[in-house]
Amino acid sequence: MAFVISIFGCGLVLGALSILQAKVAYSSSFDTYYSPLWGLPHLSVNPQGSEAQLQMDQSSGAGFRSKLDYGSGLFHIRMKIPNKRTGGILTSFYLTSAPDNQEPGNHFELDYEFLGTNGTVQTNVYNNDEGHREQSFKLWFDPSADFHTYEILWNSHQIVFLVDRIPIRVFKNNSAHGITYPSKAMHIEASIWNANWAGVVDWSQAPFIAYYQDFGFQACSAQVGGDVSGCGSEQYLWNRQDYWELKPGQKLEMENYRRLYMSYDYCAYASTRKPECSFNV
Ligand SMILES: *[C@@H]1O[C@H](CO)[C@@H](O)[C@H](O)[C@H]1NC(C)=O
Ligand SMILES: *[C@@H]1O[C@H](CO)[C@@H](O)[C@H](O)[C@H]1NC(C)=O
Q1: How confident is the model at residue 159 (pLDDT cuts 50, 70, 90)?
Q2: Would you call 133 helix, strand, or coil by DSSP?
Q3: What is the mean pLDDT of residues 77-90?
Q4: What predicted TM-score, i.e. pTM, was given to this entire model?
Q5: PROSITE patterns this protein is in (predicted)?
Q6: Distance between alpha carbon 273 and the CA centroid of its chain, in Å?
């Protein structure tokens, strides 16, 4: 994965050069990729478009979404969660196939959600259903002290969650074992909101502010009507064989990380386990 990032880095540098040479704009500014979604007065973007802030207080949270829908890609954002200690506040970055402002119903969704501000990050996968595939992790840093990169690789072979380029979770395409795999166009959302199930909010500490940066990402956009049939093409870097499974070093890294830091795993309990648990390891 480090390889891709460095290629992307080069892309940015080349983009910057071409601005000088040909006045071709290459931007990773907020407006290029994202639009406000809800809670507008609680969303602010700096004039350069390089940082967005989402504010949560007792009146509202806020959220933004990608302008387009996608069928595969290498999605990421840099995020810093609120630095005031409380439960109940959720700070998120995720992909979802659910239409805006509707009850999601059965849908696909790939989540990073901070539960409260104590540094526990929960990942979840909705696989055209109600989800309940939570895996939660402690991080090896304080996510409220600085920006860190939260990334999701999605191709037709695997979905990988990476934090600062370290893979922490893989959801494989196990259709050979009869397991559903995300097949519909998804867009990105990021939001701050509150939920009783994530603990009690200490409102005396409000407002809670989440910060986002680094808005550019690489992905295959869906055609009008949500057709993603072209998004498996190997013209896209993230669909090439290198990305079909983790490299041995990455697998080791992930196993070590999960052994040390995973605090909840739906696969660990008979009552929450799902069929893919037998095949994702
Ligand atoms: C899952 O993998 C199978 C091949 O094993 C492939 O035919 C199918 O298109 C993949 N599903 C998705 C949604 O990418
Ligand atoms: C952090 O908060 C979450 C959600 O309230 C809770 O499940 C978890 O146990 C807490 N972790 C620590 C280290 O306090």
Answers
A1: very high
A2: coil
A3: 96
A4: 0.89
A5: GH16_2 (PS51762)
A6: 23
Q: How many CB atoms lie within 10 A of CB 113?
A: 20
**Alpha carbon distance 275, 102 (integer Å):** 29
Of 30, 11, 68, 110, nearest to 221 by C-alpha is 68
Q: Which domains are delineated in the chain?
A: 3-278 (2.60.120.200)
- Ligand 1 is surrounded, with C-beta below 6 A, by 156, 173, 175-176, 181, 183
The residue assigned the tokens 């999601």 is 104
Q: Which residues pair with 56 in a beta bridge?
A: 208
Active-site residue list: 109, 113
Q: Which ligand is nearest to the CA of 154?
A: 1
| Cα–Cα separations (whole angstroms), residue 128 to 146, 220, 223, 259 | 34, 20, 20, 29
Query: Within 10 Å of residue 37's Cβ, how many Cβ atoms?
Result: 18
* Tokens (6 digits) for 56: 């949560």
Scanning the chain, the segments in alpha helix (DSSP H) are 2-22, 30-33, 248-261
Helix-strand-coil split of the chain, %, nearest 5 = 25, 35, 40
Ligand nearest to the CA of 158: 1
223-231: average pLDDT: 93
Could you tell me which residues are beta bridge partners of residue 98? none
Say if residues 191 and 63 touch (Cβ distance below 8 Å). Answer: yes
Contact 31, 49 (CB under 8 A): yes
Q: How far is the CA of 118 from the centre of ligand 2 (A)?
A: 6
Ligand 1 mean position to 164 CA, how many Å?
28
